[in-house]
Amino acid sequence: MNRVTLIALQLLVGVAFLLVWHLLTTVPVVDGKPLFAPFFFSTPLEVLARTWKDFASGEIWRHLGITLLETVLAFAIGAAGGIVVGFAFARRELLAAVFDPYVKAANALPRVVLAPIFALWFGLGIWSKVALGFTLVFFIVFFNVYQGVKEVSPTVLANARMLGMNERQLLRHVYWPAALTWMFSSLHTSVGFALVGAVVGEYLGSAGGLGYKIHEAESVFDVTGVFSGMVILTIFVIVLDTFVTAIENRLLVWRPDTAAKTA
Q: Is 131 helix (H, G, I), strand (E, B) or coil?
């Protein structure tokens, strides 16, 4: 299937969803009323109109910038920490064995419970949201990088050592390429979780951001505003994920499937 056909099918699914939503909230079915009351579900036209209005008026840009900054910082710091610690644990078995129960215990903590603690420690500014996003991103990247390094074939390692590679060369030419596929697999998921951390933090306490906008709309029963915020969040995640995919295709160009796409 070529790319144009794939994009067309993806758009068709979105249009079909919007059409069903529109019919369920506008076409009278029972006692002259639609099956889904617009007060509770809004309508796609109202949501799209609100989204367009927010962008055209410039009101949303400040909130979008705040959430973008928090998401990028949480993603960058969490991913960097997960990569470094994942490599360290995978290369040092004693270190991994000693800290294994503590890592699992920290990963098992519900992140939402940490949000008020981070707000107490770092205040209601961006850093409490970055801290929450970091806890979501770090463990996803850490476990994938750790597993990617551990999955390196012993035969490949033995051959590399026979060729005279030292530890630095092994890291660069064997371990790093082996972990890249696992790492980027986790980064695609981490983008969404970094945004979740930022938005949840804003929702619980903030003076700006998309989470703040959604919470503000919910507080006055503005369902259209809530769905509009969700649409903006969806677009936001797609753009960030596309950016990560572009970097992945650049760094993993040696893969047969990627090379075929870029040829």
A: helix
- The DSSP string of 35-77 is SS-HHHH--HHHHHHHHHHHHHHTHHHHHHHHHHHHHHHHHHH
Give the Å distances, CA to CA, from 29 to 17, 21, 82.
19, 14, 53
CA end-to-end distance (rounded Å), the chain: 16
Q: Give the C-alpha separation, 161 to 168, whole Å.
A: 12
Spatial contact of 21 and 45, defined as CB atoms under 8 Å apart = no
The token duo for 225 is 């505003």
Give Cα 50 distance to the centre of its chain: 25
Res. 5: pLDDT tops 90: no
Report the alpha-carbon distance of residue 190 to residue 139 in Å, rounded: 9
CA distance 202 to 216: 11
pLDDT per residue as tens digits for the range 43-61: 889 999 988 888 888 878 8
- Place 120 in a pLDDT band, splitting at 50, 70 and 90: confident
Average confidence (pLDDT) over 238-249: 79
